[in-house]
Amino acid sequence: MSQKPQTTQIPQIVDALENETLVLFIGADLPQTITGLPSRGDLAQEMASRYDISPSTSLAEVAARVGRAGSRFEFTNFLRNHLNPTELVPQSFHQRITDLVHSNNITMVITTAYDDLLEVAFRDAHLRYNRVVYGSDVSFIRPSRPSLIKLYGDIDQPDSLVVTDQDHSNLLRDRDKEPLVDEVRRAFRNNTLLFLGYNLADPDFRFLFDEFAQNRFARTAYAVWPGLPEDDVQMWRDRGIVILDQDPFGTQGDLSDLSVSDQGAESASASTNVSVPADINDETGPKFNTAAIRQLLFEAFSDEEINTFCFDYFLPLYQNFAQGMSKSDKIQQLLDYCARHGELERLLLLVKEENPYQYGRYIEQNQTN
Q1: 230 exposed, middle or buried (CB, 10 Å; 0-12, 13-18, 19+)?
Q2: How far apart are CA 148 and CA 119, in angstroms?
Q3: Which residue from 88, 115, 209, 260 lies 20 to 30 Å from 358 (Cα-Cα)?
Q4: Which residues contact 205 (CB under 8 A, 6 or more apart)?
């Protein structure tokens, strides 16, 4: 068994708090024991069971199938019944997020959760905030208040919900949502992001990463995801996301002193005790240029050819392809699979065999660059 690497505090997060450039991005993948509500995975399994769909299907795909079989009301009503119980109150998780925002003057929280428990927690704490669900809400943002951006909509406004893959595509094309999307893109470009409650393997996160971060964050981002295999940790680190085994602010456990706004940088570092591998600032970079490999795969194979390629050489991955999955998603899953299993070099050799012309162009372009 290998020894646990030495750890150190994260000055980047402390600096972001000091400079008011830390943005919290809260997903909906935390267990019900923490949020009081079912996770996206729980919702997908429950809906799939009800409509006789494979339990391994993603929430986006389950909702799409239910919608095609009946109407959009079918799955939005299901979500509302499960995420809007009248007797539920904010949990300690929501209260701690509220404390963190208030104590450190965090200016923006982005969430893909549909429920309103965080808003209730804000109101209970008498914290005035900007609530942004539609693009038109951006015009009413008051800079003196923190903004809560509900990127995927609100459960009480079914027309705002982003659930299916088609909804995700429409989010980027809808001119009415454009101001909201622009706010999120600016946050990705100009701030340090901390992802809480996100399963990075979920297609939902892949959409955010591809469309908003454009495959690389401008600044180092952080995501809390305990127990992730080391290969995956390295893969995400190559893409600009440092994986943390522990929540740096204790929102999912015991909460230490969150406030750093009234302290100097030295004392702030002492009160924000966050641990990551000691070689976090290593600038060696990735061994493979995944962006270039992605482009190679796009140019080397048609949609049908990528199916055949994965069937022939990566059958376990091929068997997990969902019906109707786009070529882009298949290629991204292939890249992720090879990165996790240390097979990027094998992947390139196989592409060389199948399409030597495009492989030769790839080599020429990367040698030139």
Answers
A1: exposed
A2: 8
A3: 209
A4: 27, 198, 199
Using 50, 70 and 90 to split pLDDT, how confident is the model at 193? very high
CA 195 remoteness from chain centre: 7
Residue 32, classified by CB atoms within 10 Å of its CB into exposed (0-12), middle (13-18) or buried (19+), is exposed
Mean pLDDT across the chain, nearest whole number? Answer: 82
- Over its C-alpha atoms, the chain yields an Rg (Å, rounded) of 21
Mean pLDDT for the stretch of residues 258-271: 33
pLDDT digits (tens, 9 = 90+) for 154-168: 999 999 999 998 999
Which residue, chain included where needed, has tokens 């509500």? Answer: 37
Q: Quick check: 47 and 75 in contact, CB under 8 A?
A: yes
Antiparallel, parallel or unpaired: β 108-111 and 276-277: unpaired
For every residue of 11-55, DSSP letters joined together read HHHHHHHHTT-EEEEE-S-S-HHHHSS--HHHHHHHHHHHTT--T
User: How far is residue 17's CA from residue 108's CA, in Å, rounded to a whole number?
Assistant: 12
Residues in Cβ contact with 131 at an 8 Å cutoff, skipping those fewer than 6 apart: 119, 137, 148, 150
Average pLDDT over residues 133-140: 95
pTM over 0.85: no
